[in-house]
Amino acid sequence: MTNNIIQVQGVSKIFGGLTAVNNVNLDIAEGSIYSIIGPNGAGKTTLFNCISGFYVPDHGTVLFQGLVLNGRSTDTVASLGLSRTYQNIRLFSNLTAIENVLVGQQPRLKETWVESIIRTHRSKNEEKTSLEEGFKWLDFVGLSEFADSIAGDLPYGAQRRLEIARALGSKPSLLLLDEPTAGMNPQETLEMTALIRSLRDKFNITIILIEHDMHVVMGISDYISVLDFGNKIAEGKPEEIQHNESVIEAYLGPGGAALAQKYRRKKAS
Amino acid sequence: MNDPSSLPLTPKGKNNLQTNTNNAVKKIQSIQNSKFMKLLRPILGVVVSLYIVFRLYQVLVVQHEYGPDTWTRLLISGLIIGGVYALIAIGYTLVYGILFMINFAHGEVMMFGAYAGLYSFWAFKIIPVAGNPPTNFLNAYPILAIILAFLIGMTVSATLGYFLEKIAYRPLRKAPRLVPLISAIGASIFLQNAAMLLFSPQLRDVTNPEILRRGAGWTIVVNGSNVVLPYTGVFTFVLSILLLVGLYILVRKSKLGRAMRATALDKKTAALMGVDVDSTISRTFIISGALAGAAGVMWGLHNGLVYYFVGFIPGIKAFTAAVLGGIGNIPGAMVGGLVLGIVESMGPAALGIDFQLKDVLSFLILIFVLTFRPSGLLGEVLSEEKV
Amino acid sequence: MKTLIRQSIRTGITFGIVQVFFILIAFNTMIGIMLAKVSGIKNPGEIPAPKFLIAYTILMGLWVGIAALSKKKSLPAGQKLVAGFTASLISAILVGLLEIGMTAILVNKIFIRDFLTVLSFDFIKATLFGLTPSMGILVTIGCILLGSLVGVGLNILSNLHAVQEHWKKDLAFIKNISEKVQYSIHGKYHLIWQIVGISLLAVAVILIPMKWGSYWNYVFGTVGLYVILGLGLNIIVGLSGQLVLGYIAFFAIGAYTMALLNAPEPHNLMWGFWPALLLGVVLSALSGLLLGLPIMRLRGDYLAIVTLGFGEIIRILLKSDVLTNFTGGPRGIQNIHGPSLFGKPFNSEVDFVYLIIAGVILASFVYNRLQQSRTGRAWLAIREDETVARASGVDTIKYKLLALAIGAAFAGLAGGIYASRNQFTGPDEHALMASINVLSLIIVGGMGNIPGTILGAFTLKGLPEILREFANFRLLAFGALLVFMMLSRPEGLIPSHRPKYSKPKETAADLQKKEVPHDK
């Protein structure tokens, strides 16, 4: 059995009368890139929120490295080693880029406020190393020359990358990316894909991805789950998903599968 | 993207997991601490409720200091003051609902209304009316005088509200939230001192028309003792309720009300749907100003004293009432106003506290309600924030 | 041309109303008295001589003229003349109408002071320059027009080519000098400059209080106390973004702790100053925590009203008869003792100024250190976006409580010193207005930075003390200033800048670690 970093067991989330996520199970192997796809409103972000502690699932449990996450506050979840980014970018927009990354390191730092005032040897060292790490992360996402720019003034793509750098600050073992390439041009998308892949390859960070761009999804995912109306309708390797009839119907509507088959045959001939 | 190999993560190692799990154990201990925090509120609630019940039992059953007549008196004065609070609170709630700002100067808008009422009554008293014996306008046509005074008071306050928004708030609509608040505080200080310089710092006595003489009223007998139901009080209460109902109908049924609700929900979309956002906001200020003006005139009629500081305390109380009822919520403001008025007048007696501490009681109620129901009595419970 | 005239008419109406308002609050006689004093008349009395009022009216006209042409640099001179003339004429007409009304009051001997308190007959006569009503009105209109023409003339003159060239030269000269100064400060000599600057400041701080009279020291001390308060509130509002309106309650707790422990009445405990100060600081911080615990879930405006309520509760409790035996009730507490250091008792204003300066330095030091640390960044993150800060692993509740406690401790420090310096404290010193003053000073100065707080304290606490002349107009101007500042410069007089971080220099040890070659 591979080592599962996160297990989602029968998670449901209900808003009023609407079941946004319905009895979803996921087992995500450590060191994999796992994509969650599905049409708009399928409950992907809600599932993310259940995993990262923003929502408490109504049913089911989320296990992270064998620990139950349900009901833990988001800061606890973050300090366990689970970071995330947001669908609509949410940076600390009046702080500089490097400050954003430094805030991301909060859960690992030990300096107390008394130490901040007295400035002990330890706190000085900690400040120095965290600054070094912060700059390295900025380098890694290619923003080192923007370190002192106000985050809100950065261009769109840079803001996305900065959000990832901030999430990496806590040295996570699991990173949730909510539509990291949304609104990017093809060139930026390629760069982002490479960045995501290198995160896994170089630092063994497990990545869960919500993404609409199928090129990205099919290109980098090890495994894919498909949500529709809160239900998981399929899971498997990318090529399996590409041929799954219920997935195609979910995207194209009823009869879509037949249409796709026809198209494929035509292309082959 | 250079040199990732020296990045601060342990590459491809299990170390990572190890430290995280250690961390986790520590965190779980701290979670047990926060469980205690979670329990703190219910425990606090039970303790406070038990204490209140105990005090009530002490005062009402054991000491039995006040008879039903006193309670009736207190209830009456509570309802009257509560009605006025509700009228002012509506202004806060309307503005907050639309602009998400505390109109700190609202109490001063009410104060100008009170002055307008005071001066109207004075002027009516001066205007002579022929007759036998010669009398003055105020006593010859008291009902007309009252109506006119209210109209003048409401107009003055509504105008003030309109210009207040236009000068001090409109340019700041997109600014961070602290900025309009400070502007409002500045406007409040300015208006108070302008009133002091214009109208002198003295306390002024309101001249009531004969039919609404202060202190006079119907007498009802409760428990063998006379309880006065003051004319001014009944008038104030009835008029407040009428105005509140009128406003409620306006917001629910009229086109302007629909525009106001749309603007409150989403200014951009409302503008796209053809709502003139600027004029809707202006009108909101006019309406809340007019209500505050009416409250000011009533305040003068019932309490009899007007001075430049008269709007400050009722303003703060009314804001408390609006928050108590759930700010942004119109019925909430009414309920909050009435509850606050009653708590203020009956609370000290019921709990056996000094009457000087009635304000302490009302603020404590506020803290208590917000601790257990952060959205206020009638406010919607905000759902978990979307991310 | 049409829009120009319409704009000018609007300006004219606005300024007309402002001038009418000024007359109705007797601002004209106040300025007249000031002018009289400036020109050397010792006792101008309540109503100054007509010539000073004429000067005031011309000044008003000048103001209208300049205001009508603001933002209209590029107009030809003729149009400027028209605009200025229209605006001033309209405002003059409005003032004239007011004076006609005042004349009617004067002629019919109507006693109107019950309604508008300044309109005594003497005042009306003075406003008409002691002339006959019709002449007075004409002179008023004439003066306003004259003033505005002067204003327009100045405007046209300053836009002439030659004058502009001259200006540019001057500006370039000043800029050159300031650049040189900047360079020398930030360049390689900056350490020397810093040392020189700090030592100059230190000398000034040590010497000046000795030279000043006790009144100036009192003012200076008050400003210093407000700097401490401002820094404390800055931690709560400016850094952690929690709007607290009842801040002065913590000040009151500090002041009353000092008073109750240190004064002979009502308890005669007679603690020393230092332990009482320390206990006051601790108690304030604890009360900050206690207030914070139940309301941590509230955001923004709810927090504001709850803390406002808390402040009022403290004030009312202090004032009430219920606690008279314990806190001295409405009369307050007198005869609070001062501190002594190394056997030398503090008994003059000068000693307290030094104590306050020490307090300011301590507060600035703590503030600065916190701001530049992990703690400060956690606060800023909470201010920016609490939800995300939390999800990034910031323990938001802990940090918000910490901000409240530290901010409250600052207030407790200021309160203890204040009570001891004044040898008195009473409930009315801790009213809501005081909280609002502190909030205003940090916002006017520039939120979240130390120089801004100091400047704000000088502007809002120091200036009013200095401008005693304006007594009645002080708060009016204060309110107007707040609105005006928010409209024109909401970031404050000295806006905050984010600090720059540079990559830490790599030490030899670091370099050794980095022997692994790049994989590129």
Question: Would you kindly provide a written description of the structure presented here, covering whatever features stand out?
Answer:
The complex is a heterotrimer of chains A (269), B (387) and C (520). Chain A has 269 residues and is α/β, with parallel strands linked by helices. Chain A has eleven helices and ten strands. By secondary structure, chain B is mainly alpha-helical. Chain B has two domains: 19-65; 67-372, ABC transporter involved in vitamin B12 uptake, BtuC. Helices cover 71% and strands 5% of the residues of chain B. Chain B contains 13 helices and six strands. Chain C is mainly α. In chain C, helix 2 packs across helix 3. Chain C has a two-stranded antiparallel ribbon with strand order 1-4. A two-stranded antiparallel sheet of chain C has the order 2-3. Chain C has helices spanning 2-24, 27-38, 50-68, 77-108, 121-127, 133-159, 161-186, 190-211, 214-239, 248-262, 273-295, 300-319, 324-327, 349-371, 374-384, 386-391, 396-422, 432-445, 450-466, 471-488, 508-513; strands spanning 333-334, 340-341, 344-345, 424-425. Helices cover 73% and strands 2% of the residues of chain C. Chains in contact: A-B, A-C, B-C.
